[in-house]
Amino acid sequence: MRKLFLFYSIGMLITLSAFSQQEPEGWEFLKWKINRAEAEKEAGKISEIKRGSMLDANFDYNGMSTWLEFNNNDELIKARQRKTFSVIQSKEAEEFFRSRMEYMISKYGKPSEKDHNRKDDVIIVKWEFPNTVITLEYDYKYKVIDEFGAGSYWVEIVYEYR
Predict the structure, then answer these.
(1) Which of 48, 75, 102, 139 lies 20 to 30 Å from 91 when distance is taken between CA atoms?
(2) Which 8-state DSSP code applies to residue 35?
(3) What are the backbone angles phi and psi of residue 47, rounded to the nearest 5°?
């Protein structure tokens, strides 16, 4: 009976996640194709944004470094977020990836594609919608930290308008 309930619960969770899947109309609080000036104005209202300026579209949001990319018409077409970890933070990196994955599934439903490249130590998860592609990447390959302090592991999320 317990196995049946667990199976039913998992089935309901998968079914519900499919129904909860929602297409993003942009990145977080900014809509696709919003112009740079509007993006700066909207971002200025968000208290979670720290450090940097919107002029170079480099700031921290939800614990991740964030860059916004605009096309030749100054319209928002991509948002890239990354959090890096040093070689001694492998557990923190893995936990951060897991928490982001859970958040993304709760928000966007079951991913369209998953790939675990063990040779390159990279996990890539994608959600594809008619106007947006979201890619979550976890690079856990050991890398020597360079003189600029680059991290050995990282979690990256890219939202892209298509």
Answers:
(1) 48
(2) B
(3) -75, -20
